[in-house]
């Protein structure tokens, strides 16, 4: 499993773009999952980095989480509103792991309460999805250059520039 800290160590440029875009949108990202009929589904989600894990959390019993329960593959894309992509753009690919650690859930609920006032303390989580990252990419647009950075575990970042 590639943890968030391993990802940031191996892909510092992509992770920096992800963090910057993630914060700029109030933590909003777009989550791509696979529906039961095999077609893609794109849903808004507010992933959180907690204890060096990328947690894909949200309202329980939603279709996106049913999708992930059935097929754990996902793509997480930073929400882009600028057609010129002047601040960059990042995509993270992987599978979710449903972490059953109730002590972790309790710490996360406490963190949520302190951070946002949302009180899930003492409640059982239906699922606690943690991302196992399998690849990532970022895009940056310059005056006359498109810079694409690609990462795969153990391979570091590779940069492709197109003019």
UniProtKB/TrEMBL annotation:
Q: Which named protein is this?
A: Pyridoxamine 5'-phosphate oxidase family protein
> What UniProt keywords apply to this chain's record, in alphabetical order?
Oxidoreductase
Q: Which Gene3D superfamilies match?
A: Electron Transport, Fmn-binding Protein, Chain A (2.30.110.10)
One Pfam annotation, family name?
PNPOx_N
| Annotated Gene Ontology cellular component terms | cytosol
Q: Name one GO molecular function term.
A: coenzyme F420 binding
Sections of the chain in a coiled coil: none
Task: Return the InterPro entries for the record.
Answer: F420H2_bilvrd_red/Heme_oxyg (IPR052019), Pyridox_Oxase_N (IPR011576), Split_barrel_FMN-bd (IPR012349)
Q: Which residues form the Pyridoxamine 5'-phosphate oxidase N-terminal domain?
A: 24-92
Q: What is the lineage of its organism?
A: Bacteria, Bacillati, Actinomycetota, Actinomycetes, Mycobacteriales
């Amino acid at each position: 499993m590639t943890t968030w800290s391993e990802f940031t160590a191996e892909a510092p440029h992509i992770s920096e773009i992800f963090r910057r875009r993630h914060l700029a949108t109030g933590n909003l990202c777009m989550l791509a999952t696979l529906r039961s009929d095999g077609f893609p589904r794109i849903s808004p989600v507010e992933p959180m980095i907690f204890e060096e894990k990328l947690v894909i959390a949200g309202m329980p019993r939603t279709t996106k989480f049913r999708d992930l329960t059935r097929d754990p593959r996902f793509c997480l894309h930073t929400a882009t509103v600028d057609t010129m992509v002047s601040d960059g753009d990042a995509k993270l690919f992987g599978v979710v792991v449903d972490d059953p650690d109730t002590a972790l859930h309790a710490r996360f609920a406490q963190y949520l309460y302190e951070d946002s006032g949302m009180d899930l303390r003492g409640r059982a989580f239906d699922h606690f999805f943690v991302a196992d990252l399998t690849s990532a990419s970022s895009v940056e647009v310059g005056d006359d250059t498109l810079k694409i950075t690609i990462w795969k575990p153990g391979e570091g970042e590779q940069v492709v520039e197109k003019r």
